[in-house]
Each structure stands twice: as C-alpha cells, then as structure tokens.
Amino acid sequence: MSKSRRDEAGREQARSEESRREDFVALLYNAADGLVAELLRRMDQAGYGDVRQTHGCVFGNIAADGMRLTELAELANMTKQGVGEAVSDLERMGYAERVADPSDGRAKIIRLTERGRAAQRAGFEIIAGIERDWVKRFGAERVRELRSLLLDLTEPELDLARAA
Question: Could you tell me what percent of the chain has a pLDDT over 90?
Fold first, then answer.
C-alpha cells in the first residue's frame, strides 16, 4: 500500500472513531449506562447489591398497592414474559410477592414486600442524589434543560420518525 493510501486510510479510521464517539444514539446509551452503573454502585453501598438493572422495570413502575403483570409490562413498555422474569427474580430475593387479586381470584397482584419497598425508596433517593450531583457539576439550568428535553422526547404521542 502506498504512503498516500495509508495516510488516507488512517484519516478515514480517525474520522470513523470520532463519529462513533459523537453518534447521538451512542451518547444517549452511554449517558444512561453511566447513570445506571452509578445507581447500582450506590445501591450496593446501601445494602442492595443483589438488585440489577433488569429489576428497574418493576421498581420504577409498580403502584404502591401493587398491580397485575399485564399493567406492569405495559407501563414498563416490555413484554409480559420479560417483566415476569424480573418479578420471579425479585420474588426469589424477597423483594416482591404475588398475591391473589381480591377482585378476580384467578389473577395475581404483584406487590413489593417491605424489603422491596425499602429498596425502592433507596433507589429513588439515590437517583435524586445523582441528580443533585449533576446540578453541582453541570449547573441547575443545564440539568433542568436536560430533564425538560428528555420529558419532551419521551412523550407517548411523539413520533421521532416524523419529527426528523
């Protein structure tokens, strides 16, 4: 390969690596991954080291008095099977339980146990703490703007394909 072809290949590789670092989707995923990693690190410090990212579909969406799996899956925007696996895992760990639905004996209500409610409270407090840390690091206005934009982007009626 000639020197000019090697130089061009090197420049192309550098541009490709830079574009991957700046890719919008990758930036969003990387930011979310960093937030979750910090949440789980702090959950571990708080005594909930067995809580995993996959459990967020339950902890982040379940009603205080519990709910059916179908409702929980809909809120989490996941399949019933996926949420059911997380619920089964949380049951084994003592964070959740399935009880008979008083309005329909055939159905089950998923609810958090006392341990589950304590872990959920800890998680919410940790997330609020991470947000406070971001305010200190990036400033209140930037964090407010980020929150506002994320709320706008996650509106159910927003069709990102048509918005482009």
Answer: 73
